[in-house]
Description:
Blueprint (H helix, E strand, L loop, with lengths): L3 H32 L2 E2 L5 E2 L6 H7 L1 H23 L3 H12 L5 H12 L3 E3 H8 L3 H13 L3 E6 L2 E6 L2
Antiparallel strand pairs: 1-2, 3-5, 4-5
Helix pairs in contact: 1-2, 1-3, 5-7
Amino acid sequence: MLTHKQLGIVMMVLAVILLVIGTVYINKAEAFILSHAKTGPEGECVHEGPVCPYEEVNKLAAPKFISAAVLLVLFAGGAWLFFRRTPQEAVQRKARTAAKDLGSDETKVFDMVVAANGMIFQNELVDKTQLSKVKMTRVLDKLEAKGLVERRRRGMTNVVILKQ
C-alpha cells in the first residue's frame, strides 16, 4: 500500500507527464490547423469551406486552460500529500523539540513512549526502565506538567499517551 508521501510523488509525476503530453498534442493540433490557413494580400483570412482555421484554434483555448487548471490542482494535491505530516509525525516532531529541556530519566521515559507509537502502560515503563514506581510517577508528573504526555486510568494501571 502506498504511503501519503508516495502517493503525492505519483500524483506530481502524473501531472507533469500529462502536462507534457497535453502540450505536445495541443501544439501539434494548432500547427496542423494553422497549416491550412491562408492569408490574402491584405492579411485577411482566406479559407476554403465554411470553417475558419483561426476560429478552430480559438476553440482549443478553453480546453487548454481547463486542462492546465486540472493538472495544477493534481500537482498541488500531490505536493500537499508529499509535504503533509501525519498526526503521529507531528506529535513526534513536537516531542523532539520539547524533549531538549528534559532530564535524563525524563528523556528515557519520553523516548520509550514515542518508540511505543505514543501509547504504553505505566507498569511496562517501570519494568523497562528499572525505575521505582514512585520515581516513575514523579517523572510522568514532570512530563505531564510540560504537556508532553497524558495518563489515563485503565483497570489497575495507567496508560501513558503522547499528547497531541
